[in-house]
């Protein structure tokens, strides 16, 4: 028993007296926080956002020129479905806390997949119609008016990109029972 008490005293002595530590809390070692690193990352994110905007603008101009010369609207439809999804995924990078895959199946199944279906319905149907019909003039593609109106703004694509990244990296660990 005496050995246990001596061992405890031997372990506690290097830690210091609790009274002394309580009187001098500012002398305790604290981890250094790199306050500037979070600002540097946000600045880099903004620079990347401007780069994506410039690249997408240049790509849109070249696609418009291609469409004007070939009268094939298919690249235009694909562009307006893919680019907002990329912007949504890039915006979602702000919400990722840790870069480890933690699936949130509720977000992926209930939000991402329906938004992807709505966002890419038009381009997929146009591609199928243009590649399977024998006459090149067949532009009779059935797209519901509400779907065209919603997709003209790009909201489903942005939401799909955002929720895909959040659903892949933003899940929570399930508690074991």
Name some characteristics of this structure.
single chain, 177 residues, mainly alpha, 7 helices, 70% helix
Shape: elongated
The main sheet comes to:
none
Structural class: mainly alpha
The chain-level mean pLDDT equals 81
- In total, the number of strands is 0
Q: How much β-strand is present in the residues?
A: under 5%
> Cα distance, first to last residue?
39 Å
Number of helices, where a helix is a run of at least 4 consecutive DSSP H or I residues? 7
- Percentage of residues assigned to helices: over 70%
Using the CA coordinates, give the radius of gyration. 28 Å
Order of helices and strands: HHHHHHH
Low-confidence stretches: none
Give a description of the structure.
It is a single chain. By secondary structure, this protein is mainly alpha-helical. 70% of the residues lie in helices and 0% in strands. The chain is built from 7 helices and no strands.
Briefly summarize what is shown:
The chain is mostly helical and 177 residues long. It has helices at 2-12, 18-23, 35-70, 74-92, 105-132, 145-153, 155-169. The two termini are 39 Å apart.
What's the topology here?
Layout: H1 2-12, H2 18-23, H3 35-70, H4 74-92, H5 105-132, H6 145-153, H7 155-169
Helix pairs in contact: 3-4, 4-5, 4-7, 5-7
